[in-house]
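Hi V.,

You were right to ask for the full record rather than a summary. Here it is.
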Amino acid sequence: MKRNLSTLGLLTLSLTISLLAGVPDSVATTTVDPGVEHMTLLKAGPYAIDVLVVDLRARNLQVESFRPVGLVKTTEQARRNDRVDHNIVAAINADFFSFTSGWPVNNQVMNGQFVFASSTQRSHLAIDIDGKPFIDKFSLSAWVKPKNGKVYPIDAVNDTHRANSIILHTSFSDTATNFSGPGVTYLLSLAGSTWSVGDTLKMTVAQNGVPDLMHIAKDQAALWIGSGPDVWPAHEDVKVGDTVLVYLGTQPPVRHVRTMVGGVGMILSNGKAVADSINVREKTNITFLKARHPRTFVGFDRDSTKLFLCVVDGRQERSIGMNFQEMADFLLSIGVWNAVNLDGGGSTTMVIHRKIVNSPSDKTGERPVANTLQIVRINPPPVSK
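Predicted structure:
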């Protein structure tokens, strides 16, 4: 175990908190992997907090989202994504989700491809292929352009069919949506393109009709066109054998997004706590913002080089959880500049090297969740001589 308080300024933090609270606080840090520090804090409240500090400039280290089929515990998601030369250092639960469908409620990008996307106006964390993080209210901006040049908006990725909509289904489409209502479907294949958020892709119309949505190849997609008056003309413009252009991006625009997960409520924006009046616009209520709950939250520092993955336990004698103002105060004290709230409550879980390091609040223990945010050590194989 390596003590590394000075590198993160934790000694200063501990003294500052102690002076403010009037009681001693416990702060410790360990290096769990090169470029990844684990902070454990016990402070007045009481609060039990775990923080992973990730150096986004570290060689062979990246942050990924992961999506299983259905709801799966964070420890199991980390295990499933762990493989040779792709080692999962740590993971936290990510987005809010539907217990009915097992799907996240906000946008998710995994390895440069949308897992789910819609016109949601909630806050998200995005990280591009260069490791630069962003926090904003990202929504889907997408379209398909047939050979005749007419542009038709794509309303969602792997979402529910609606009569006056066009939905794109990818290899992540599992049990979320059955074909419902009148419409037509075309099978598309990538033509000299790779999945990339914010780029225009070339795709060949391979066939008319798709047997089901649960067996789409990784280099293919199913384009469903509803029967509504605004979208129905597209079914005559999309023809088998043609090459169509497909754009899958975000609004506001960010190119080459490798990772994205959604949440509800922005905690910090440019070094300032976000007002409750702004966060209620994200379809949450003031009680949720002001109540103390177990929380999972994530942020980055002013120069966008360190990512902070945080959990605070709650609903327990040793830790009562935090509200949004308390999360903001804590994050500012450790140098975070922008931050977003992820799913909390019984979902709040942090895993390091496949072991849970916090104390989930459900009596049954760790809760299955829809997706996770993972720290990955990439170990390229030796170059053969």
